[in-house]
Amino acid sequence: MNCLICFDELQVGDTWFSFLLPTYTKAVCAHCDQTLQRIQGVLCMCCGRMQATSSSESEVMCEDCRTWRRLADPLRCNRSLYIYNDEMKRHMNRFKFRGDVAIATAFGPELRALFWHSFRDYTPVPIPLSAERLKERGFNQSEVLADLLQVPFQPLLARRHTEKQSKKSKWERMNTENPFFLSNEVVRGKKYVLIDDIYTTGVTLRQAASILCKYGAVEVAALTLCRG
C-alpha cells in the first residue's frame, strides 16, 4: 500500500490509533500523519474550538458561542477532527477542487470513530451544494464524507445558488439570506447531525440546522472534518 497523501510506500507498524482500532490499516504514512493537527484537550462545549485553558470543567463555552446562544442557537454542538492548518488546506484543495476523492478515505476511520463516540443516535444529513456548484465540481464533498461513516444518511436539504462562502467576510456570512430549503420530509422528534468539510464561522451549519428544527427535528448537531 501507498500513503494516500504523499504516495510513499507505507511501513506497517503499530501507532496510537491501531490500539484503538486493531483491525484498522492506516492509509497515511507516519510523516503525513504527524502533519495532521488533531483537535484535542479542552474544547468549547458548543463549537468544538480548542480552548487555551487548563480548566478541568466539562462545560467551557467560547465567546462566539455565548453570542450564538443569546440568539437562540439552533445548533446543539459541532465536533471536528482536525485544525484547518496550512497542510490540511492543501489536502482539502486536492479533495474539493482537484477531485481527489480518494484522499478523503484516509480520514474515514477517525471520522467514523468520532461519529460513533458523539453522534451514534443521530441521522447524518450532508450539507448540500447548489445545482450549479454540483455541476461545476462534479461531486458533493459532504456526501463523500457522509459515505465514510458507513451508516445511511438522509439528503433532507437543498440549496439555492449563491456566491461562495469563502469569498465572504464573517459579517457578510451572518447577514445573508438562508440558502437552504427542504428537499425531503423531516421526521419529527428525530435527531440529526449535519456533515460538512470545514467549520469556519458556523453560519452555514446554523442556517441548515434552523431549517431542520423549523420542520420538526428535535435536535441538530454537526460533524465536520476540519475546524477553522
Task: Provide an overview of this structure.
This protein is α/β, with parallel strands linked by helices. The protein has one domain: Rossmann fold (3-Layer(aba) Sandwich), CATH 3.40.50. It has helices at 16-20, 30-35, 63-70, 86-96, 108-118, 131-137, 141-148, 170-174, 203-214, and strands at residues 78-83, 123-126, 157-159, 180-182, 191-199, 219-227. Helix 9 (203-214) links the parallel strand 5 and strand 6 (219-227). Belongs to the ComF/GntX family.
Q: What is the topology?
A:
Layout: H1 16-20, H2 30-35, H3 63-70, E1 78-83, H4 86-96, H5 108-118, E2 123-126, H6 131-137, H7 141-148, E3 157-159, H8 170-174, E4 180-182, E5 191-199, H9 203-214, E6 219-227
Parallel strand pairs: 1-6, 2-5, 5-6
Antiparallel strand pairs: 3-4
Overview features:
four-stranded parallel beta sheet, ComF family protein, 15% strand, alpha/beta, 228 residues, PRTase_dom, two-stranded antiparallel ribbon, PRTase-like, 32% helix, ComF/GntX_DNA_util-trans, Rossmann fold
Quick take:
With 228 residues, this protein is an alpha/beta fold.
| Annotated CATH architecture | 3-Layer(aba) Sandwich
Radius of gyration, in angstroms, nearest whole number: 18 Å
**Average pLDDT value?**
89
Q: Tell me the total number of β-strands.
A: 6
Quickly give the structural class: alpha/beta
Helical percentage: 25-40%
Query: Which percent band covers the strand fraction?
Result: 5-15%
Low-pLDDT parts are: none
| Count of separate DSSP helical elements | 9
Question: Sheet bearing the most strands, described?
Answer: 4 strands, parallel
Overall 3D shape: globular
Q: How many domains in all? A: 1
- CATH fold field value: Rossmann fold
- Note the run of SSEs as H and E: HHHEHHEHHEHEEHE
Which strand order does the major sheet show? 1-6-5-2
Q: What top-tier CATH class fits best?
A: Alpha Beta
Protein name: ComF family protein
Family: Belongs to the ComF/GntX family.
Domain Phosphoribosyltransferase: 137-227
Organism: Ectobacillus antri
